[in-house]
Design a protein that fits this description.
The chain is α/β, with parallel strands linked by helices and 731 residues long. The chain has four domains: 151 residues, no CATH class; 215 residues, P-loop containing nucleotide triphosphate hydrolases (Rossmann fold), CATH 3.40.50; 156 residues, Rossmann fold, CATH 3.40.50.300; 88 residues, no CATH class. It is built from 31 helices and 21 strands. The strands form five sheets. It has a seven-stranded parallel β-sheet, sandwiched between helices. A six-stranded parallel β-sheet has the order 10-15-14-11-13-12. Strands 17-16-19-18 form a four-stranded mixed β-sheet. Helix 2 packs across helix 5, helix 4 runs antiparallel to helix 5 and helix 19 packs across helix 20. GO terms for molecular function: ATP binding; helicase activity; hydrolase activity; metal ion binding; nuclease activity; nucleic acid binding. InterPro entries: Cas3-like_dom, CRISPR-assoc_Cas3_HD, CRISPR-assoc_Cas3_HD_sf, DEAD/DEAH_box_helicase_dom, HD_domain, Helicase_ATP-bd, Helicase_Cas3_CRISPR-ass_core, P-loop_NTPase. Keywords: Antiviral defense, ATP-binding, Helicase, Hydrolase, Metal-binding, Nuclease, Nucleotide-binding. In the central section; belongs to the CRISPR-associated helicase Cas3 family. In the N-terminal section; belongs to the CRISPR-associated nuclease Cas3-HD family. This is CRISPR-associated helicase, Cas3 family.
Amino acid sequence: MNYYAHSDKEKDKNQWHLLRDHLQGTGVTASTFAKSFGGETIAHVAGLLHDLGKYSPEFQKRLEGHSIKVDHSTAGAIEGGKRYGLIGKILAYIIAGHHSGLPDWGSVADETSLEARLKKKLYDYMSFSKEINLPVEKDITMPAIRPIVGAGFSVQFLTRLLYACLVDADFLDTERALNPEKAAARVKKYSLKKLSNNLEQYLNNLCTKASDTAINRKRYKILANCREKAECEPGLFTLTVPTGGGKTLSSLSFALRHAIRYEKERIFYVIPFTSIIEQNAMVFKRVIGEENVLEHHSNFAYPQEDQWEMENDLADKLAQQKLATENWDMPVIATTNVQFFESLFAAKSSRCRKIHNLANSVIIIDEAQMIPTGFLKPCLNAVVELVANYHATIVLCTATQPAINKFLPKEIVPVEIIDNPEELYKAFKRVQVHNIGTVSDVELVEKLVSQDQVLCIVNSKKHARILYEGIRGDGTFHLSTRMCPVHRTKVLEMVKERLKEGQVCRVISTQLIEAGVDIDFPVVYRSMAGIDSIAQSAGRCNREGLREMGQVYVFWPEKHGMPRGWLNRTASLGSMVFKRYEDPLGLEGVKAYFTSLYDVDAAELDKKCIMEDIREQERQLRFPFRTIAEKFKLMNDNTSTIVIPWDKYCQKTLAEAESNLFSGSYARKLQRYGVAVYEKEFRELLEFGALEVVGGRFYVLKEDMFDAYYSQETGLKPFTESMFLNDTLII
């Protein structure tokens, strides 16, 4: 009798995907993925076990069209647990969850828990023994894991990486059988050596053409340091480079040279803001080729719920780069902090599938100070784990290096790539920073109006709007996330043009302008904030060094402009640094700021108790994977996105989405027309009849309500009580 893994309506039964072939193929592929960290024997047996439940007669009848509910994934988990001791428990997690996601160990009272599933009564699947020869326990070896941040953390991390190997292998083997065209589209060979040669040729041309100035000589020294340190042994590095130092291409040079020297497989850029990703990815594509760079962030990611629709019906239209978002199988990947760290603590197969490709890679974490403080400990432990046990080299890259050494185990000592960061900071210093104390809105408006070209960055959308209304007029602009991205882009284009032409240009903005926006003002005002934020603001002042010194004025605002909660703490610490240091943005001031910032109750650095959850029953390997995934959210997700029909392109796209069966495929096109609002405001807008649903999924501001609810100057208007309350949030 033949046993099948998958049916195919387009083929005769004798051409269906044989179960034996699927288990063996998945095992081989998973083993290949896990080889880089020594997990190949576990991954191989996971592949052999993962679909054992499909050997039941009931599942085979289900493939033939019978309406029978069959749990096919628990069988392999049970079999692995019986045969392989402690390794069997790791196998049980990854096999039981290969469709539904990594489970909690839980208790028998919860039928979705691993403990309950391992005691579940199943249909007879023992026919597998006729086709599958499982290895004996002594032939299954554990990777040489160094548990330097705790045994429990290391074991659960290994479980996640092995889970990724299995899930990706399962997807790919199924794809090869059922969708060979899509599988063929993935086949791609690349040479990091060739990419490195392209980059070095580009950089050499750039250096040859550059003027022989003091700043350009320093930029070349930064590049030289990156090239030299690429020869260092793999590990954890820091790259401390001021704004304007050319760290984007210099760090890429380090990454490619280091990858070639130590046979790493790919390069990751982890960046906090999509605007910076788009900017950096554009540079990478121009230098090393568009086909070699993957952008994976909200503007490019698939809507997960439409994944199977796309696989079955639109496969021939999917580009290779889009396919690579599923498993990060590209030479250079640019992604966000959120995508990177949340994937490392996720439970869903679609989120976890790609993380095995982080092993044996070079990972650049740009603007490293932006790792959220409330998740600092689990994030740093994940960084340490990748370096210590998965042959990754990680570079923490920033102008304001966070003081994290005390949180690292003694075995991990970061290597600074720059020979003399202090000297470099002084060479690139282009602004003077002044603390001007408390300033009322009236006084601030007077100061701003007295300047022809000035940028003012404040801590809340409400404060930005109040100041804008006090100044508004020709040459005055407002920026906040109440404006859709396309609207903001249009405003920034006008701002850049006016600055270039020497025209009057006054901008009131929230902190969204602090990173990823290449803009240059002679004078910047900044509401008191953390030193890292003030440094980012200073990066928008005299950016090109066209003046001897730009002027940055830091002030305490009126009460309605004060930051709240944790941001109030960072502002207070920033103020403290101003009092203690003549140059608050110097390396000593930055170090003092982060030392004080992290000198809090340990719970503040792991606010969701992720490490406690892992340690609670680590001796028994009882981990709450699903619970951790639900808690590990770097950004609040209690918002809904409203699409703003800003222009004809948006209106045309919405019309197409309304008439298309697969409306989710338009999500990326509409991303830049969205404004996120909190749930209460969203419900109020629905109650007021201001929104309509397009394509069954997009909530759109009605065109006949546009003028009433959306300002061409300040974006979505706050009309209700909840809108005014939430309008104090920073961006």
